[in-house]
Design goal:
This protein is an alpha/beta fold and about 190 residues long. It has one domain: Rossmann fold. It is built from nine helices and five strands; from the N terminus they run βαβαααβαβαααβα. The longest helix has 16 residues, at about 175-190. The site of adenosine-5'-diphosphate has 18 residues, from α2 and α3.
Length: about 190
């Protein structure tokens, strides 16, 4: 299996690139942000809970997120591999993901980390807020909170995969095509 963690701060371009990678490598896309948003739209209990955190730029509690992710993954037992987008976002999530995949006799192949500096992230998120209607992209205080939460709670996940020699940093500045080519080069280099 080819299991990729696509990592990076909010606004780094994970969602955009995931869509393309899924097509090229025939992987299943698991985006915790997308799953939460679908639950909010559907008015489920999980959606109501997730919204109370997302609106503040905070992480949804690990226990809830991990359970949801495992339940989504188990819907596609025959997947040739996954792109994990927006997950894991804490070391506890990373450990849970390893345990889950190990139980299926597989594991994470690599982490691809999109690198974009903070000023650019702020610009992109506020711009996306204008087009997408995502509430968490429209308020500068919430955008800043998400960037801070990323630095404090999510960045340690990078060290987790670095320690396993699975980390590859990718320059996240450039056109969508350029960044996609960089990601593909990293994946193809690994497979070769
Ligand atoms: P972005 O990375 O652009 O902020 P996402 O769609 O990945 O957007 O996430 C939106 C929000 O959903 C996050 O700010 C957080 O509140 C929640 N969320 C998404 N993934 C996770 C996760 N793995 N753990 C906890 N909360 C999450």
């Amino acid at each position: 299996m080819l299991n990729i963690v696509l990592f990076g701060p909010p606004g780094a371009g994970k969602g955009t690139q995931s869509t393309r990678l899924v097509e090229r490598y025939k992987l299943v896309h698991l985006s915790t942000g997308d799953i939460f948003r679908a639950n909010i739209k559907g008015g489920t209990e999980l959606g109501v809970l997730a919204k109370s955190y997302m609106d503040q730029g905070q992480l949804v509690p690990d226990e809830v997120t991990i359970r949801m992710l495992e339940s989504e993954a188990s819907k596609t037992p025959d997947a040739p591999g996954y792109i994990f987008d927006g997950f894991p976002r804490t070391p506890a999530q990373a450990e849970a993901l390893d345990r889950y995949l190990n139980g299926k006799e597989t594991g994470i192949t690599m982490m691809l980390a999109l690198e974009v500096e903070e000023e650019e992230l702020r610009k992109r998120l506020l711009l996306r807020g204008k087009d997408s209607g995502r509430a968490d992209d429209q308020d500068p205080a919430v955008v800043q909170k998400r960037i801070d939460v990323y630095r404090n709670e999510t960045e340690p996940v990078r060290d987790y995969y670095m320690a396993q020699n699975k980390y590859t940093g990718i320059d996240g500045i450039g056109s969508i095509d350029e960044i996609f080519d960089r990601l593909c080069a990293a994946i193809d280099g690994y497979k070769a």
